[in-house]
Amino acid sequence: MMRVLLASVEAAPFAKVGGLADVVGSLPLALRRLGVDARVILPGYGFINHLAYGVQPLAEFNLSHRLGTSVIRLYTCQHVGMPVYFLQAPPYFGSEGQVYSAWDWDMQRFIFFNQALMAAMRQLEERLHWRPDALHVNDWHTSLLPFMLQSHGDAEQSAQATVLSIHNIAYQGRSAGGFMWQAGIHGRQHPHLVELGLADNLLGIGIAYSDMIATVSPRYADEIKYPYAGYELASLIERRSSDLRGILNGLDSNIWDPATDRALAANFDSGNFTSKRSLNKRHLQSVARLPVHDDIPLVGIVSRLVAQKGFDLALPALRSLLAKRELQLVALGAGEPELEQAFWQLEQDFAASARAFLQFDSVLAQQIYAGCDIFLMPSHFEPCGIGQMMAMRYGALPLVRATGGLADTVINYDDGEAERGTGFVFQWQEAQAVAGTLTWALATFRDQRSAWRRMQKRAMQADFSWEKSASQYIDLYEIAASRAIARRADPK
Fold first, then answer.
1. Domain 3-250+467-489 fold
2. Hey, is 420 helix, strand or coil?
3. For residue 404, what are the contacts with CB-CB under 8 A and spacing of at least 6?
4. Tens digits of per-residue pLDDT, 328-338?
5. Fold annotation for 273-463
6. For the segment 45-62, what is each residue's pLDDT rounded down to a tens digit?
7. pTM for this one?
8. Which of 65, 110, 272, 439 is the 20 to 30 A CA-CA neighbour of 425?
9. Rg (CA), the chain
């Protein structure tokens, strides 16, 4: 049986900020269903409720490093039958109330996490006789591990197979050189890093030293080879393109199921949605204090309100259409103050047809997926995206820009009888493109109801389960393991 350890600073349900947590919380469970002994290790944040999750102490040991000696406590629990490990080491981890803090302190904490994790893997081997065949690291926070294993580890660790997942290349851990020097991490002399000036970029180090690299959709794997999406790491990605795979994130269909979701006013599935789903729309309209009417098209948004998500394109389009068409909007999200202000102002100007909930509310999010007709996701870039998959699962048709995982998951309507299509797709990063595509979707909702229903059914039946993606990761682990075996046989 293959053994895989996933290292991350987020993992649902223990520590969740974004999509990284959803992947690390779901992928290993799918791997285990396919026969892989997958486990997860993450920081033991102070906000994790040990009693609620049945967390128990496993080991305590000292780690000497350049700044002194740290006492590390290793804890564990079983999550749906999967072992999860937590590293506590005050002041780095153990008392905080949230995952992320100030940039300079996060640099120190997560660099230390890489050092502590190397020692923790030795503890797992000594105490549990368990050693991973592949170490799966995620984003810049754990990207030092492939390098450290090869350059700072013992003979066995230097031949450890490693796979790096890039969930969003915009976040790279830049300018980390001083923090690494302070922690005693040296010698990043990989020729690509030196040539491209990336020896102080944590994600770049992971890209250079990992055996294999994955990102979260096929389209995004192509996009990050170019500077508009890959930024300063594009050249490094291009050099490693033969080792890069785009593997679409999955959706846990057992958890996210409109037939059983207790947050909904009425449960439904692809067989009875035409009669039951409308009850959720009425409930959402009531919660949002909007006129309750089945025939008024309802646009939903569930998102972080940040520049990446394309609301600079959507807000002018929504304002124009709300002024001249019969249309409703329910938006849920929080983020950048100027975008929160813009959505608040939109509600003030169109109080009879628009409502903005400037917060995070998981129950309301599910109700929006299940109650809206059109789910708007106009992202400038989207490595994978889960909102569009959730919307389709719950019978809403997504309206998206053709980028990253949005292009990989949403099939554009054929503008006819819906022989194909699960949503509406636009190309250009312009407000007019959003307005034109939304106008098209509204006309389809009004005039092509049979085609609309056909697309809804197809969208609800789309297979976004983790099993297909998990099997692709297994292939990636096997390639990485074979490279590690070769490295062990011929160390340089």
1. Rossmann fold (3.40.50)
2. coil
3. 217, 219, 220, 223, 379, 381, 382, 383, 384, 385
4. 999 999 999 99
5. Rossmann fold (3.40.50)
6. 999 999 999 999 999 999
7. 0.92
8. 272
9. 24
